[in-house]
């Protein structure tokens, strides 16, 4: 039996608790439900009580000596961060491409010449399951030290059945092997593999007829994602793949309008995607369609920075009523980072979101983007005891003192892991 944990005297406790279940929009994104001199009682893996320290003294004062008492004075306490978009399971790395891009090559040129996603696919196909486990574990450790307690993970560096399943099985095993909860997404449609070059529609047929049924039958994924981009999958092909996934109970997600405007945001609304990702080049019409359909914009400002592109119009999307989440996009090509705090900083600096909006986007709205809002993303009675204590007094400092990791301690399901 693990001891209960009593976190006391937090300078600021941002619970993110709000009535209502859906993702937060507009002004709701600024409501952090702050408590001064805040306290949390964690027991049996869940939050048992939240409030001021005075209130918890009344409720739990008698049980103080049973608990591990943590003095959080001078600290901000928040829910564990949620990263709703990662490609964390991959083999190898691509530092040479980083140099090539600085020398002038574009991301798509490198990919079309057999590098980029194709290079990682080769390395991931070659890696054993054990090697992938080992490499992914190290990245997850880094996520945890940066305050992330739940992360989505995509396949998509296999693009053949064996390797797609290998990636998804690694995620399944990591559920047991690592403290972070991983939420799996099938992304067989990450690129057209070289063996299908010039036969794109045949690959789409193969993915729909051969891959999707196996992934669904083995219950290896909850979501189905497509890279809808000029030169990768057209909106028509993407729609076929996402609709087919729906027949197997897989919820659509879509990498949309990243490099060129391509109608991805509009398609996300049309197919009822839970989220659309990137959206650097999303049209005004697409943004409106997403707001109307309640599609979450999962924005990836670290990717924009790393590709030296103008970030998505985060400010405009929040103002238009689109629920916004943010994510690292952790992957070996366009965003090799495991730092959600950096992503929050960039959401403010590059997308003019406010510090409060950035925190909502990295917690509650991020949880909504992977359908986990009933368990994580806010600190409320009965929810998972995933908590971060930061070595700063308030949430503004989290975004203001940028590029630094302020994490002091992390609890996952009530157990201290950092
Ligand atoms: O989200 N855009 C497509 N996929 C990834 C990059 C994958 C890679 O370069 O390996 C992304 O940016
Ligand atoms: Fe991505």
Short description:
The protein is α/β, with parallel strands linked by helices. The protein is built from 16 helices and 16 strands.
Commentary on this structure:
This protein has 418 residues and is an alpha/beta fold. Helices cover 38% and strands 21% of the residues. Fe (iii) ion (FE) is lined by residues 85, 87, 255, 277, 329, 331. It comes from Siminovitchia thermophila. Fe(3+) binds at residues 85, 87, 255, 329. Its cofactor is Zn(2+); Fe(3+).
Query: pLDDT under 50 segments (min length 5)?
Result: none
Distance between the termini: 19 Å
Helix content: 25-40%
Strand residue percentage: 15-25%
Number of H/I helices: 16
Topology, element by element:
Blueprint: E1 5-14, E2 34-43, E3 46-52, H1 53-60, E4 68-71, E5 76-79, E6 81-83, H2 95-102, H3 107-112, H4 117-126, H5 129-145, E7 148-154, H6 161-177, E8 181-189, H7 200-217, E9 223-228, H8 235-247, E10 251-256, H9 264-271, E11 275-278, H10 284-293, E12 296-299, H11 301-306, H12 314-319, E13 324-326, H13 340-351, H14 355-361, H15 364-369, E14 387-390, H16 395-400, E15 407-412, E16 415-416
Parallel strand pairs: 1-4, 1-5, 6-7, 7-8, 8-9, 9-10, 10-11, 11-12, 12-13
Antiparallel strand pairs: 1-2, 2-3, 5-14, 14-15, 15-16
Helix pairs in contact: 5-6, 7-8, 9-10, 13-14
């Amino acid at each position: 039996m693990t001891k209960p944990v009593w976190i006391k005297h937090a300078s600021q406790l941002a619970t993110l608790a709000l009535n209502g279940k859906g993702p937060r929009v507009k002004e709701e994104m600024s409501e952090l439900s702050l408590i001064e001199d805040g306290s949390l009682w964690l027991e049996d893996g869940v939050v048992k009580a939240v409030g001021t320290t005075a209130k918890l003294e009344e409720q739990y004062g008698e049980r103080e000596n049973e608990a591990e008492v943590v003095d959080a004075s001078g600290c901000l306490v928040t829910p564990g961060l949620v990263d709703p978009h990662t490609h964390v399971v991959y083999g190898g790395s691509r530092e040479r491409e980083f140099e090539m891009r600085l020398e002038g090559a574009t991301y798509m040129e490198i990919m079309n010449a057999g590098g980029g996603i194709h290079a990682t696919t080769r390395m991931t196909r070659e890696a054993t399951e054990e090697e992938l486990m080992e490499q992914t574990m190290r990245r997850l450790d880094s996520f945890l030290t940066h305050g992330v307690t739940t992360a989505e993970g995509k396949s998509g560096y296999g693009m053949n059945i064996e390797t797609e399943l290998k990636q998804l099985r690694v995620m399944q095993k990591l559920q047991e092997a690592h403290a972070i909860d991983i939420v799996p997404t099938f992304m067989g449609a990450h690129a057209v593999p070289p063996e299908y070059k010039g036969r794109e529609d045949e690959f789409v047929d193969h993915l729909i007829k051969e891959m999707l049924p196996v992934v669904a039958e083995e219950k290896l994924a909850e979501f189905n994602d497509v890279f809808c981009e000029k030169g990768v999958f057209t909106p028509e092909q993407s729609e076929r793949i996402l609709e087919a996934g729906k027949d197997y109970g897989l919820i659509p997600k879509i990498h949309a309008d990243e490099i060129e405007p391509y109608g991805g945001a509009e398609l996300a609304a049309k197919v009822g995607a839970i989220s659309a990702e990137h959206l650097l080049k999303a049209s005004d019409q697409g943004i409106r369609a997403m707001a109307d359909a309640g599609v979450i914009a999962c924005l990836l400002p670290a990717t924009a920075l790393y590709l030296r592109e103008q970030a998505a119009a985060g400010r405009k999307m929040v103002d238009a009523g689109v629920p916004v989440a943010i994510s690292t996009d952790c992957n070996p090509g366009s965003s090799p980072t495991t730092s959600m705090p950096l992503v929050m900083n960039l959401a403010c600096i590059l997308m003019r979101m406010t510090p409060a909006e950035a925190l909502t986007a990295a917690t509650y709205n991020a949880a909504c983007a992977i359908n986990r809002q009933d368990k994580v993303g806010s600190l409320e009675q009965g929810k998972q005891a995933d908590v971060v204590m930061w070595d700063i007094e308030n949430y503004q400092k989290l975004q203001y003192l940028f590029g630094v990791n302020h994490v002091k301690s992390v609890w996952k399901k009530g157990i201290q892991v950092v």
